[in-house]
Amino acid sequence: MTWRVCEEGFDSSRITSNGNKFMTGNGYMGYRGTMEEYTKNELVACNLPGVYDRVGNKWREPVNAPNGLFTSLAVEGKSIGVLQEKPVCHRQMLDIREGLHWRNTVWDTAYGRVTVEAERFASLSAYHMLCLKYTVRLEKSCEITIKTGIDGDVWDINGPHLEGFSCEQAGDVIRVQSITQELMVPIVVAEACKRSFIAEETIEKQDKGIFRIIKWCSEPDTAYTFYKYVSVYTGKDNVTDMVEAAGEAVLKTAEAGYIRASQDHAACWKTRWEDADVVIEGDEQDQLALRYSIYQLEIIAPFHAQDQSIPARGLSGQTYKGAIFWDTELFMLPFFLHTHPDAAKSLIRYRIKSLNGARRKAACYGYRGAFYAWESQENGDDACSDYNVTDVFTGRPVRTYFKDKQVHISAAIAYAIWEFYRYTGDMSILSEGGAEVILECARFYHSYAYFKEDKDRYEILDVIGPDEYHERVNNNAYTNRMVHHTLEAALQVLQLLKEGNPEVYAELLEKLDYSGEIANIARMKEKLYVIQPDEKTLVIEQFDGYHRLEDCSLAEVKNRLLDPREYWGGGHGVASDTRIIKQADVVLMLYLFRDTYHSEVLKANWTYYEPRTEHGSSLSPCIYALLSCETGNAEWAYPFFKKSASIDLTGESKQFAGTIYIGGTHPAANGGAWMSAILGFAGLCVRDGRVSVTPNLPQKWSRLAFKVNVRGEKYSIELTHDRQNIVKLG
Amino acid sequence: MTWRVCEEGFDSSRITSNGNKFMTGNGYMGYRGTMEEYTKNELVACNLPGVYDRVGNKWREPVNAPNGLFTSLAVEGKSIGVLQEKPVCHRQMLDIREGLHWRNTVWDTAYGRVTVEAERFASLSAYHMLCLKYTVRLEKSCEITIKTGIDGDVWDINGPHLEGFSCEQAGDVIRVQSITQELMVPIVVAEACKRSFIAEETIEKQDKGIFRIIKWCSEPDTAYTFYKYVSVYTGKDNVTDMVEAAGEAVLKTAEAGYIRASQDHAACWKTRWEDADVVIEGDEQDQLALRYSIYQLEIIAPFHAQDQSIPARGLSGQTYKGAIFWDTELFMLPFFLHTHPDAAKSLIRYRIKSLNGARRKAACYGYRGAFYAWESQENGDDACSDYNVTDVFTGRPVRTYFKDKQVHISAAIAYAIWEFYRYTGDMSILSEGGAEVILECARFYHSYAYFKEDKDRYEILDVIGPDEYHERVNNNAYTNRMVHHTLEAALQVLQLLKEGNPEVYAELLEKLDYSGEIANIARMKEKLYVIQPDEKTLVIEQFDGYHRLEDCSLAEVKNRLLDPREYWGGGHGVASDTRIIKQADVVLMLYLFRDTYHSEVLKANWTYYEPRTEHGSSLSPCIYALLSCETGNAEWAYPFFKKSASIDLTGESKQFAGTIYIGGTHPAANGGAWMSAILGFAGLCVRDGRVSVTPNLPQKWSRLAFKVNVRGEKYSIELTHDRQNIVKLG
After folding, report:
1. Does B446 sit within 8 Å of A451, measured CB to CB?
2. Which of A296, A576, B168, B263 is the residue whose CA sits 20 to 30 A from B188?
3. Taking the C-alpha atoms of B400, B403, B404 and B408 in order, what is their torsion angle to the nearest 10 degrees?
């Protein structure tokens, strides 16, 4: 059972979290794990990444498409659904091997036992398609009414985003057209419904929806099955006639039939798993959790696109504005790089595409170069607000500095491009824009930095590091080291181009007017303040003055909360004046640059910072797992791996920051779980196309097996406690 | 009646404010304007500036001496006092010409009319002495009991500071000895009491006090008068035997008698007023308010000391920890410089004396040079807390940055020393330490500053300007300009010494290891970012990004308060994210450097900033008055003069910052009132020993006359709307 996620029984308090847990998707769209009879009140969403909309001055966020899978049931005119009637039996299941969502619900009614079974998927072989197989069976003979169609009255956090609805029937197809408010992007959802039993069917049009009303008298204990084929198109798709395309897609799929569609879909999943599956023997829970993490990454991977990235909450809804954070580069990219380099390339290209947005942001703050958005939307403009938190005591918005002071974002992007290049050896990513991004990030840092004559060094002032609870600090160890890396990468990229592609080099220098900049970058790299371990304790101070803050326990800080929803950071937060940090910060830096530090330094800092870390971000535990593996301590790493891998299975994560809802899936933690297993426990290291492992399996695990794709070659790797096997596949 | 401040009737709600309003003092001590029968509950205080004490980890503050003037009355065993019985007639009066406090209270009692009249003063001719004349008169014959002596149970905000009490009688003298807790400074208060009527006198000793119980049967309608001579000595006084000195002082004064003591005192006041009085004709209120302001400055002036300064709340108690702020240098020094240069010198020498404290503070933050204390106590160590405000919603202390980020304090001190030198032409202040202070302040700024290569300039980052509502800003126009002035002064001082006193120059350079520093200072002076007026609007932006803040009205910001005691600044304050400022900031800078700006710039900035200024500090209105005079607009200046001059008469000032009591007198506003009149309306300007005026009298004023002391020469200046008369006195 390590390919299935299942819940028994119906619990209305789990509607929201199960919406995340039972997600399906194909990168083009994400479909929440809700019941067919749900509406916006239960947070049904067919989320469309990359299609953003803003209403008034509310937060800009991705659009949810009209729900083409809506289906409700009535027996003898009485609605039957999990919300209306408590079922006697209810199971919700996700088959992660084949990307199928399945539910089976049984009610005891005045008309006897009523059973609904439904299976659906977001097609991995046809990205615009959602398919549903719906079966109803009654113990007795009754009049059954199915209402099924397209529900355009969708869940929005800062909507309504869709307007100008047009709901029509055209032959066998019904469809809903609408447009977004801000940019007037058209959204079309079409549906065809196929059944083999005879029923009376009428069409019901509403302002924001169109439905089929299907009525018949059922035979006792007879299964009635129908199939829905739904397509979603938006104005962002490269098609001439969206309405025609949407109609053709559903008719074509319907004609081939559900079995064919699900076979094609399953075949794609098979390929995905061949590249990405990780086998863990010794603990079934771990096996399932890690596979489930990989599943979550697969359903949001932008295989369908050339230059699309992944939002921080995946495709699970509109939280975090559907924006791309550094999560993608540092926590998701490694998985894709090692298993699906093409998808990785799309993530990188998204940042190349949005370089001008980063330039605009830098200019807006008076800097040169590229200052990437903290919350990046389609054009790289920053969706992040200056006020991200609400004070629970006064209800006032609190000025936060994520947008303007988390300058390490640009370095994360330069790091990712450089890693992509190092991993793939693919110079083309540099010449098609990657080099430009790195150079512009380096230029930004030179423009941001200050020189301290007194200490003969450059410093990076007034920033927020990964630990967001401490705002506007100077010389954050993580940030400074990442900036140093950016400068180094810029110089190396210049050298590479100069030697390998002098034309591109010359063009780029001229385009960017960069000749004069090179000396700046080189000088700054030499003299940038990189915070060193303390000689005695080996601890690296997180930022200037961190060691002067109150050193109290996490429990003590928690104990000071007057309201559980209080924001811990900012001007007045309970953690702000203490050494309690939100997430891995120095430890993240040490992990990223682990090759340049002595193991004793890694240990000392892990031991110092772990008890002071709230792990209030889902990005934190995996990094502690990884660094612990690096010091050879798999057992310390293990609980952090488990926490990271199971976050979306348990649903035990922060749902609120202040009063703002931040629920959804956690692809960065999913990626972190993969990293912990493969880069941590297996100790996989790929350098210059060469593969090595330094395994360190948790005691419980008897075997770990996975594949890795290195520069077009696939390797199968199998590890036990006393054996390593690396096989290059034919 | 322009020499008297008077209140009729008793109002218990005014006990605290009248304690400030009716202050007496002589620089050595301040005695609050309380009734003789009051105790610590009514905030009686004999405040001793320069004697500080800390209890546990509470705020360190100046000590209040045991109250040697305590006197209570009982008639037929029943206590009679304003607190016990509502008087039928009550007058409290301050004679500011002679520095006398006077009260007259009449009660209608069962024993007929009871009258108490008392006059007292803190001697200006004998700084350790307090003298009291106390008269009681009854309509009928009754048994009168007077309890008078030394009450050691004193008012403390963060006390108790005194311990180890010893209360003794020695011949005619009673005395209380005690020591402070922290530094064990002994405090001795002695008292002698003289009367010419016969009464039974016994001594009552208590743990913290010693009292005379004087009983007699009064004749009807007969006045019984006694005199109290009280001396105060501390371990900080340069005497061998404090107890002996204290006893001798009271006996000597008693022997000469009250008339002689008050004549000597009055003679000193006469001299003071000869130097400092300002005559305003045309408005009696203005005349009284300005005289009263001068009076407040006179009673706290450190004439008795060589190197003592003046706390921000004068000698009115322990608020603001009795600490010296920049108030002294920028708002009080001008008065003393122009009227009492010797007292001015003491203020300057205090800063020279505390240079090592400033060095310690700089070093503690990782800087070189001298970073003066924001709240300076006897050794220049900073009494300022990191938490100066309490959040009214959570009761939590709020991290403020006055101490660590208000770096303009050092520049204010350098400015004051330079002004002292320029005014007096007295090089000795430079060679006796003034030069060292200026050089060390300049060194501090070089060590604090950052160089921005991108813009080829030095910047001053992460500061608080005079407007404390905006914390941790970059390139505050005031601060940067003041830093520039410090650098300039340092270079000029070096030049002066090199030419005028090469030995001192050489010594200083060696002592401070300063030779290498000179180039730094010179370079920084050339390239320091001094914020210029906007080309179009002429407005100088208060700090980087100020113009991006919300531009809403003062009324709107006030309207957002949920609690009247809320702190407006800091991380979450109602003003923090708006352009509303606490006090003159750019306008103060423009006033100090008025000679270097075009009048249109002064006007544009006054007009821009005034509506955006809360005037939440008593330092603010006078600066708006001064700058307005500078642009020739006396009528705009006039209400700000009035506000500044009457602050301690009306008692209408902020009593709380958050939940912290900040009441007391406002010597900076008193100094500001004098500046507004003399440097503003009269337009007095003294440069290189030459005196000039550019008068601009308010319409209401028909004549303004005052004196000024320039390099030992006294000038009498008389101005009307059509005449100026400057006479050098013989």
Report:
1. no
2. B263
3. 120
Of B375, B383, B524, which is closest to residue B441 (Cα–Cα)? B524
Neighbours of A207 (CB within 10 A): 8
pLDDT in tens, A219-242: 999 999 999 999 999 999 999 999
> In A, which residues are within 8 Å of B453 by CB distance?
446, 449, 451, 520
- Nearest residue on chain B to A548, alpha-carbon basis: B365
User: In whole angstroms, what is the distance from residue A448 CA to residue A442 CA?
Assistant: 10
A76: its two tokens: 């003898």
Task: Determine contact, residues A179/A208, Cβ cutoff 8 Å.
Answer: no
Pick left, alpha or beta for residue B322 (phi over 0 → left; psi -120 to 50 → alpha; otherwise beta): left
Among B368, B394, B459, the residue with its CB nearest the CB of A562 is: B394
Choose the closest CB to A396 out of B391, B570, B572. Answer: B572
d(CA B142, CA B224): 12
pLDDT value, residue A700: 96
Which residue from A minimizes the CA distance to B390?
Answer: A572
Within a 10 A sphere around the Cβ of A695, how many other Cβ atoms? 20
Do A4-274 and A284-681 have matching folds?
A: no
Highest CATH level, class, for A284-681 = mainly alpha
Beta bridge pairs of residue B116: B105, B136
Indicate if A468 belongs to the active site.
yes
Identify the H or E element spanning A506.
helix A502-512
Tens of pLDDT, residue by residue over A676-686, are: 999 999 999 99
Give me the percent of chain B exceeding a pLDDT of 70.
99
The ranges of chain A with pLDDT < 50 are none
Quick: pLDDT tens for B630-666.
999 999 999 999 999 999 998 777 777 666 778 899 9
Pick the catalytic residue from B36, B329, B468, B471: B468
- ipTM of this predicted complex? 0.88
pTM, two decimal places: 0.92
Superfamily classification of domain A682-730: Maltose phosphorylase, domain 3 (2.60.420.10)
Which residues are CB-contacts of A564 (< 8 A; sequence separation ≥ 6)?
Answer: none
Q: Closest approach of chain B CAs to the CA of A526, in angstroms? A: 15
The total number of residues shown for chain A amounts to 730
Query: Residues near B382 by Cβ (< 8 Å), separated by ≥ 6?
Result: B357, B361, B373, B374, B375, B376, B403
Minimum Cα–Cα distance from B569: chain A residue = A571
The residue ranges of every structural domain in chain B are: 4-274
| C-alpha–C-alpha distance, residues A570 and A576, integer Å | 6
- A contact test, residue of B572, B576, B577 with most A CBs within 10 A: B572
Question: What's the pLDDT score for residue B293?
Answer: 98
- The answer as to CATH 3.40.50.970 being correct for domain A4-274 is no
Of A398, A454, A520, the CB nearest to B368: A454
CB pairs under 8 A between A and B: 65
